[in-house]
Amino acid sequence: MNLVQRVWLVLEEKHIPYQYIEVNPYDKPASLLSLNPRGLVPTLQVVLGSSKEAQPLYESNVICEYLEDAYPSHGPRLQPEDPYLKAKCRIWMDFVSTRIVPGFHRFLQWQPETTSVYPTLDSARKEFLGYLKQFSEAMAPASEGPWFLGKDLSLVDLVLAPWAVRLWVLDHFKDGGLGIPADGEDSGWERWKTWAKAVEERKSVGETLSEREKYLPIYQE
Questions:
Q1: Strand pairing partners for 45?
Q2: Residue 169 in contact with residue 108, Cβ under 8 Å?
Q3: 87 near 69, Cβ under 8 Å?
Q4: CA separation (Å) from 171 to 20, 58, 166, 167, 199?
Q5: pLDDT per position as a tens digit, 113-152
Q6: pLDDT bracket for residue 36 (50, 70, 90)
Q7: C-alpha–C-alpha distance, residues 149 and 100, integer Å
Q8: Strand ranges (E), the chain
Q9: Higher pLDDT residue, 34 or 99?
Q10: Mean pLDDT for the stretch of residues 35-55
Q11: What share of the chain is helix, strand, coil (3-state, %, to 5)?
Q12: Are 36 and 43 in contact (CB under 8 A)?
């Protein structure tokens, strides 16, 4: 769901023609399994060269970078030309995937019987908020623009966006909610809030989301 939205956002932002095929995760069709035997989504079917031979790609970040490289004439560019900035973006894309996303799910799934890992719900919340704070501190100053790099939207923004717009589930399911201080209570969170607001208002994000009620049973499982 969230991983699929990552790729969907890139397709929408770059105006790349595509066919979206929804599958039942509990009854995976042969067409998906023939491309990706693990049956994971997203899976991209790529037609290569004049032979029209179809090849699969999977892993959401890999697909996002492939689309950026394979469609350079489709704007906007979502990776900087500068080698250092591009490398920095990759570092923080990895941070999202290896720190923020697992932290989100550990916080969401915390139960009293999991205390051997996290003694309290607050400890799981503190870890997750710490990752969000690190991400915020790595952003360009808000005076340069709302996005991670400032004025230009990038893959870093898009790989985190699906989780950023679902933080409300933590308020819904966990005692004490997400725990980000209210406006005016902690200036250290203002950069995050500027970024999150820009994400929530982005046209592509709104067009690739469903109503909140449809997500509740998924996160309740």
A1: 56
A2: yes
A3: no
A4: 31, 32, 10, 7, 19
A5: 766 678 899 999 999 999 999 999 999 999 999 999 999 9
A6: confident
A7: 18
A8: 43-48, 53-58
A9: 99
A10: 83
A11: 55, 5, 35
A12: yes
